[in-house]
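Our consortium's second objective concerns turning raw sequence data into structural hypotheses that experimental partners can test. To show how far this objective has progressed, the report includes one record in full. It was chosen at random from the queue rather than selected for favorable results. The single chain below, 544 residues long, was entered without modification.
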Amino acid sequence: MATVDEQIKGLQSAEMFQGIPVEQLTTLLKGIQVESHPAGSMLFDVETTGSDVYVVRSGAIRISRVTAYGDETTLDVLGRGEVVGELSSLDGMPRSARATCLEDTMLFKISRESMEEIIRTNPRVSLNLLKELSRRIRKADDTIVRRLEEQRRALESQLVKLHKLMDASKVINSTLDLDKLLGLILDAAVSSIEADRGTLYIVDSIKQELWSKVLQGADMVEIRLPVGKGIAGHVAQTGETINIPDAYSDARFNREVDMRTGYRTRNILCMAMRNKDGKIIGVFQLLNKKSGPFSADDEQFIDAFSQHAVMALENARLAQEMVQNERLSAVGRMASVIIHDIKNPMGTIRVYAQVMKRKSGNEEAAKLADEMIRQVDRFVNMTQEILDFTRGVSASNFQDLEFGEVMSSVLDFIEKDLEKNNVKLIRQAEFKGVVKLDQDKMVRVFYNLASNARDAMAQGGSLTVSTKAEDGFVKIEFTDTGSGMPEEVKKKIFEPFMTYGKKHGTGLGMSIVKKIIDDHQGKIEIESELGKGTTIRIKLPASN
């Protein structure tokens, strides 16, 4: 319990009682109560009735209002010697704000009647109270102006970001070319938040990999990394936003990339790109903001921008599918007509060739008859294959087969065709295990690859076919010494209607090859360089 002298000193600290003699303060204490309130307690709330006046002896009081949007806004924080609740005491109206103790607080409590008596008998108190109210009004004016300025700056910042978002959206919606679009999306993200450079990874959900295309010299090179590996892989796996202000102080950062490239990474922002279903389809990795670390505003911008990027990618994909499906439909209709028209005549030719072989008695004529039968079968199968592809038919007849025997018979057939075009076949078949195959389809794959290699060696050359076991797979490589292909052709080689370096063909051969390999749960890769030949690498699961 405070002594009278301590209470007098408490009143003297209040601006309202400045200049009041001690004997008068001693008299005033008779109508004043001392109260203690713990931190977090509410002294009074807005629109409640009450006319008591409080003077803060120790502690702090927060004066606030709750907006129509549910936000509690601080109007003032009152400390030692300041008056709380004076307006209701003066005008008799409900409380105009909420008063909450920010810490353990001790107050002088003065009733309205006592307050009126103090003012009536002590004019100096009235003058002091007016001075305090005047100071409060000035402070409130300054606070309002400052907040209006902050809101103005925040609004201008939001407008700038909105304009950037609109400009970026216009840019990325200017093309339906998927490769070009990926570059535009990355450029827009980098420039909009003033990063130095970045990478846009796309998630391959089937292979559980991230892939991207980066510029190396004059060529675009595709890079791949497993989901879950590295910072980008972690974001692709978890969806977590990673904002690293100092890359070299973060254990997750791999310094080897900088050591290898000579680039110095200062800060990193890595964020997921999600589709409308919330699935992660890509990852932005942005480096070195020019003005310092990436901010929360940068994160919000990339999050908003990624929604526009996803829509642009989806539109490009749908547009390409529509064009491709229409072209496939047209080819399918053509193939259907061809099969219908040639079925009978081709069957007749095949029967006549068989008869010629039996009755000729001539070895050369028998060879010619066998060649006729092979070419008829090849033509019919190729046409049926195109028809099945355009219709999306993927029925397969899988069997466990001795791979060495299948490959040997295929190479015997291929070698005859290659010899006619001055192409030497080099066999390096090592794998002898069992593989689950649709033999007819896989034979067509190998023949198609050999035919492409033959066409790439118009002046002759060599085709090396090798097979060997590798990590539970059989690895098959077709390596030719032909003309090779440029990067822009290689990256589109599996797309329907893509042809290069030949005047004949439908442009569906490699698309069909890719489909067959996928149906076998295998992988196919291409290495090629202009003037240095091409290697087609296939991996098929080997049976246990």
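The partners drew two points from this record. Residues 4-146 form a domain with the Jelly Rolls fold (CATH 2.60.120.10). The mean pLDDT is 81. Both points have been shared with the crystallography group to help prioritize constructs.
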